[in-house]
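ARCHIVE CARD
SHELF: 3
SLOT: left
DATA:
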Amino acid sequence: MQTNFLREALYEIVWTTPVKTVAAEHNISDVAFAKTCKQHQIPLPPRGHWAKLEAGKKVRRQPLPERALGMPREVSFGASRWDYYGSAPKNLMELELIPPRPFDEALSAVRDKVTKRVKRISVPRDLSRAHPVVRKLLEADAPRRAKYWAATYKSLYDAPYFDSPFEQRRLRALNSLFLCLEQNDARVTSSGKNPHEFYARVGLTDVVISIDDPKVERTSWHATSDIAKSASGMLAVMINRGSLTEEFQSTWQDKPNDKIESHLTKIAVNVLVAGESACRGKELAHYEWLVRRKADLIERSRIEREKAEQAERARRVKEEQSRVDRLLSEAKALREAQEIRAYVASVKALNETSHEPILETDIASWASWALEQADRIDPIRSRRFLSDQA
């Protein structure tokens, strides 16, 4: 089950109640609890803190640092990483949903702070100081290079991915950007041997980045660029548009006298701001999802209630009709019982005046049986009619 705390509220809790106690109250291991607090930069009391407090000694409370870029204002325990919107409270229908409170700083102010923090990016001539992601791509490309140059017939399908001047320029730009992002607490990852997109995790928010020829599509089956492709080929940068509002630039492209390398510092700044922007957008999206979810639950409840009421009305109508049908059936049974009795009386009377009467014992035996049948189906004699009042 997911449990959420406002970051400031959780900070107050962990400095007034031992972590083991808080974790146990919410069925969370104290190790996982402490790890999550560390992830959200919530300082925990040091060893011996509670003993000093109990002994009446003064203790120092570490201040709560400013929330990092891309980190949510709520701390979640037990949340699924695959659930984008998070879970909904069980009592959502009864809750009054309040829109997220405004952030202390506008994104423009955040961008100004990040701009002051990020150092100017320069692009070296080589990749001797390669970021782990770039180094991994180069190391994976080495066997392809060796095989390609050793072959008599050189096929594009065997060519190394990153040997062309264009690809080397692209990797140098990516590498410089990645190193800057890592210095500013954003972790960069990629997938595949020849990736078009890379992922910068800003706080807990992923931002998609690409630096590439805007006209090509990459594949792992063969090299995207001809091995002789010039470094002057067009390069374009894109940050996934969903992360930034229109006031922030998310695309850059080479111009005759203005290459993207001169914009890498601004790109790094906007990637970091994009992480914060997407984080804020996710908070609003979660609220809007809760509003839709609540409305959906209320509508479902209304439909189910109407169906239940309709079913109850149908049940009552059916029950009343069943009682009426039983009344008619009992009335018919009473008439038939009376007809049987009248028939028995007529047989006896006719037998008395008959020229060849049936033996009295035979008539009596038959009449007894017939009257028993009449009593059996008679709803009054059997008191069966009283069961309808139950």
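SLOT: right
DATA:
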Amino acid sequence: MAVESRVTQEEIKKEPEKPIDREKGLGSFLIVIAFENMNHFGWFVLSRMDATLKELTSLVKEVYPEARKKGTHFNFAIVFTDLKRPGYRVKEIGSTMSGRKGTDDSMTLQSQKFQIGDYLDIAITPPNRAPPPSSRMRPY
């Protein structure tokens, strides 16, 4: 005897998105490592775990004027300690683009399992360069 289960889209209940209360609690310092044309830049950023990639893109554009150009690509990755062997691992989490809406804009660090002690790596590609590949080259 076979048992079959079907779930329709109507039966799946999605939790309504909760508004983000920026007044509650304290932010966390993020160490942001960004690079353009293999040149590394580092910033300490006060942000929150519920910060979206679009919000982080805006923070980068505030401190790095070259990134304000329309069409600039921002590829985000989490760099974290590998507990199974010495060294670090890199997890690609999403991308944004200046001047355009994208599917990853509302993605949060928390939703990607970002933890205190991790680094946020951002590859910045100017608009006049080829679009970044899905798996970008990293110097480490």
